Amino acid sequence: MSTNVDTMNRLSFSMPYRAKWWLMFGLMAAPLAWLIGSALTGGLGANPIEAINRFLGDWALRILLVTLAVTPLKLMFGLTWPVRMRRMLGLWAFAYVALHITNYVAIDQFFDWGDIWRDILKRKFITAGFVAFLIISALAATSWNGAIKRMGVQAWKRLHKLVYWAGVLGCLHYIWMVKADLREPLIHIAILAVLLGVRVYHNLRVYYA
Ligand code: HEM
Predict the structure, then answer these.
(1) Residue 71: which domain range?
(2) Is the CB of 54 under 6 A from ligand 1?
(3) Rounded to two decimals, what is the model's pTM?
(4) Cβ within 8 Å of residue 138, ≥6 positions away
(5) SS3 109
(6) Ligand 1 in reach of 128 Cβ (< 6 A)
(7) 196 vs 188: CA distance, rounded Å
(8) pLDDT for position 11
(9) In total, how many domains does the chain have?
(10) For residue 105, what is the DSSP state?
(11) Which residue's CA lies nearest to atom 31 of ligand 1?
């Protein structure tokens, strides 16, 4: 483990934290910039609404998994700088989820609330996505420092542990949506399982130490 820590610390290069923060911010913004560019130049294929919806859903889930990787990176490699970026990463995940849902509500469903509600109740992949969305929204709404003071540290931590459920429900949303080729959702599920596994392993080690 110590070799891993040494290697990762060398890999975390001597870039100042501020520069790393902006680099990460740029990486999170890049898919959105690409999407806007493609939409403006007609590069989204024959069904742009579906392409936008899927693109935003994909990136919402990927960034959620990146956010969930922060603690395992600290536990396994001693990397602490990603911890300081967790709020920014989580808010990017929220932004992509919010855009994904706005696209579905406004462009796909034309604000037909009756139809949207029926979808939430009847199609289990939409139900799972909806609950994940509620969780991610609650976490985004309480992501500012004042919320920790108002709620108290313990209650705030309990609420923010729900992020794991958002990850699980996001993956279920994906695999329940896909009808034939399950490879991509299964890759996301495998990554989530590794990230959760590292935490469980660490907690068991602490418990039995
Ligand atoms: C109210 C909440 C949500 C609704 C209504 C919703 C709706 C949808 C719809 C309609 C699709 C496309 C289905 C199709 O093209 O056949 C989709 C795909 C997807 N959504 Fe959501 N979604 C929600 C929440 C979420 C959340 C919270 C995440 C991630 C954290 C997410 C990630 C995805 C992914 C990864 C896909 C598959 C994209 C692909 O095919 O490559 N969705 N969603």
Answers:
(1) 2-208
(2) yes
(3) 0.92
(4) 159, 162
(5) coil
(6) no
(7) 12
(8) 56
(9) 1
(10) I
(11) 57
